[in-house]
Protein 1
Amino acid sequence: MKDLQSWEDAGEIELYYFDESGFSQRSNLPYGWSPVGKPTQMKSYPHNKRLNVLGFMSRRQKLIFHATEERVDSAKVVALFNKLAESKDPLKPAVVLLDNASMHRSAEFRRHRLDWMDKGIWPIYLPKYSPELNLIEILWRKVKYSWLPLDSYETFDRLRESVNDILSKFGQEYKINFV
């Protein structure tokens, strides 16, 4: 991993961390404060929609993402990898670190590996059960626990707009220090 990051720092490769995450109106806020005697109440949404987000993130604050209300499957993962193939620097290899989710190991996903490698995209699997090595997990945590305003949970449309707005502004208004 350190070698890959060194090669990225030297400008020899593009290094991306790939993963999926889900957002719903069920708040992810683990705790909160309110004045004594005036508890803050939030509406609960037990049966709600889910916004699924797939993304490639680099330590250089670059993010390529796709948000959908549909179920995420191998076809959606393949489509986003194809989008990366279209947008990456053709002269520089792109290494993509990803977890061992079934949709990343499916026959459909594997069928595209040689095409991606021909286009300079090298998917590499992280060790099983090691989400701490996938830096995009930090992005998902920041969005859910720090950057999403509380009023984002009032309607699903507002949640979708807020998530898309934050992710679209990642690298400009929203940054992560990976030091």
Note: The beta strands are 14-24, 50-57, 63-68, 94-98, 121-125.
Protein 2
Amino acid sequence: MILIGLTGGIACGKSSVSRLLQDELGMEVIDADVIVRELQAPHAACTRLIAARWPLCVHPETGELNRAELGRVIFGDAQARRELGRIMNPAIFRAILSRIVVAWWSDLWRNGLAAAPTVVVLDAPTLFETKTFTYFISASVVVSCSEERQIARLHSRNGLVAEEAAQRIRSQMSLAAKRRLAGYVIDNDCADDFDALRVSVRACAGWMSQQSNKRLTCIFGSVIVAAVGCVGGLGYTGYRLLLA
């Protein structure tokens, strides 16, 4: 299995790219945003921790998270972002890793090691910031556009004025830094030209399929060998004890 990391700046069109890969090209996408929403469901463990730290961000009766209020809190405060990360990141890691393992094992079960590897996309806004899953991916793709386009989209989509939009953009790793780390960049500066984006995504999908699948095979293969070795060692020890 080839695991490709997909990331980008806020309002760059990463979600549109992800939908095209999934809906039109049939790729499996592990969506970190969807996972975060599941973890922040009403009365979920993470939501309760957020409520304990920022009571105004969670409805006291329904347990529903007020995402707009939480956004106002964290985008203007680096310390608050770090605190939210300490709450969310361990749970996000466990959830994403479990999905990667399931996808890898399913691909191995269906196709074996001889068939052409399946491409699975990890859609993660903070792929480079958290760094954890950069060790698992074969390559990364960044969706990029100009800051002017980001501000215009944030105004249209979220109703943010230019200053608020710029603050949210500055709170993230710069697109220039992400582009330097990427193996492939999709430029998405066209305002309404979805066909142009579709062409770019198809070209990117071809590039994805040419990447190596050795990373995950080595990681999970080593884990399986180690686990089998431990089980075998325990079995042999038990056998010797029975003979003693």
Note: Strands lie at 2-8, 28-31, 119-123, 139-144, 184-187.
Protein 3
Amino acid sequence: GGIIIPDTAKEKPQRGKIVAVGQGRVAEDGKVTPLSVKAGDEILYGKYSGTELSLDGKDYLIMRESDIYAVLN
């Protein structure tokens, strides 16, 4: 048998805009792999993804690239 998840229990993706990115992911060998997203990209991500941060009166969400579902532009 399968598991049926009702629409009311499904996580709805959130939409946001990337304002800044780091230099990339550091691999075990020390090499930096560049990110595939850039500042200005509009993205979809999980409702519970990332860590909330408030800075200079603005709210931000810090997340890993792997938490991004899709890039919209």
Note: The beta strands are 14-17, 25-26, 32-33, 42-45, 51-55, 58-62, 68-71.
Protein 4
Amino acid sequence: MKHVYPLLVLLLLSLNACQTAEKQTAPLKGFVSAAHPLATQAGLEVLAKGGNAFDAFIAVASTLNVTEPMMSGIGGYGTILIYDAKKSQVRYLNSSGRIPVGTNSDLMRAPTPNFMENRTGAKAVSTPSNLHAWEAMHKEYGSLEWTSLFDRAIEHAENGFEVYPLLARFIEMSAPDFTDYTKGFYAPSGMPLGEGDQLVQKDLATTFKQIANAGVASFYEGSIADAIDNAMQQRDGFLRKVDLVNDTAEWWEPIKYNYQGYDVYTAAPPSNAFAAFTFLGLNEQFKDKQYQSGSANYLHLLAEIAKASYSSRLLYSVDPELDPFPGDSIFSAPYLAALASQLNLTEATEYQLPFTSPNSMNTTHFVIADSEGNLVSATQTLGNLFGSRIMPEGTGIWLNNSLAYCTYEPKGNPMDAKPGHHKLSGDCPVIIMKDNQPWAALGSPGGHTITQNVPQIIFNLLDFQMTMVDAIAAPKISFEEPNNLIVESTVPTVVQDSLRQMGHQVVNHNIGNAHGVQIIRDENGNIVRFEGAADPRGHGLAAGN
């Protein structure tokens, strides 16, 4: 039996009825696009109660922890961009976390026996900072009581929700790694939960009740921290309670790139989102060629730009506490022109990463807009499916495997794990400004494909004037080493054949699970409506009230 979302049906009808300013009969309270309908509903309910986008952020994120348990949660990390309408300011909230002080990255590097296995399990767990970001957001901007923002997460964890096809598939894939404790939730009858079954997570509900009532200190300093520490010591992991106690989330300045007259903002290092700006800048170098959207020549160009921008990412990744970020240099016209001149516009080039790079599609992104003009664009993750596959007993919390996404070969490379310092990430939340007002917010999961997928959505919006729905749904490409090219199966066969003739080894599968919202204004700059999208590749919902 399928879930019915009566509130969301009404909200969608309301949104669709408000296509022009003349038909708008009441102020819009806001818009949410998230990877599960229950998370979207949780955010919209907060907005309907008078909360702002920042309150709704906590409700959406916590509900996704319950309904997308394999993708994100309080055992994970993330990167958040916001627009503060009162101060007319874009801000960046970093919750990527720090490398545990006891980390020995040599154990993740050949010739250590079983070094690849160490990239999952306890040795891959890094400091989870998501909950500190939720707290920082609420302290700075919250308007509703902290305790009320976890209501839906607690309800759906305690009472259960219906397992959907994607979750069922991922539970089945991951079941061999489940302990007797986690099987109690995900395989209570002895067989992994399947589509249509109910996933009940009572321990997670108890954890959220504790956090809602006692605050985040219960996670980072109290009994939950003790449970995490015990689980790590039992499994010889690096993370310890001292890492949790010393953890923080930090407000930093974002970076900006002007593309086609629009100011595009994303996260500064330690996020590697700047690679998306290299992508934007290189694409601008070829505007005079007027490529047709979806053509073989255009997709080939994007593939070669993606390789160059990823190379730039590896060269200039930094922990801002240790080294300055050379943004002025690598976004400069001379640098981009020189890089563009090296691209092969007719043949696929091989690109071999100097290390083994895990590829993960296991992350979540969501966006929120409110009637005051505030925006949230948030990427949160556990790393791999169910992260490290470790859940400290009694907590219901999946712990991340983010150390697998630090780069360990060769030793000392810019992305290598440095104990006690920031962990670099590939998250790329985006906010786009037009005439000094918020115009859109978007982002996607996808591991190393994130900084390839997000620019393609931006090109669709700004170069090809697509709606957010069409820009996200349109077929995408992404390179894989050494010259494999992921091409979504919706790309016409004739185009795929042309790409093969150029030397690309074409591989078909989906890219990302993006979410976005666009703010539509009248001639006076007032918000008329929101137009957004949940990626058809996923299970999400975009809706407004």
Note: Residues 89 and 326 are 23 Å apart (CA to CA).
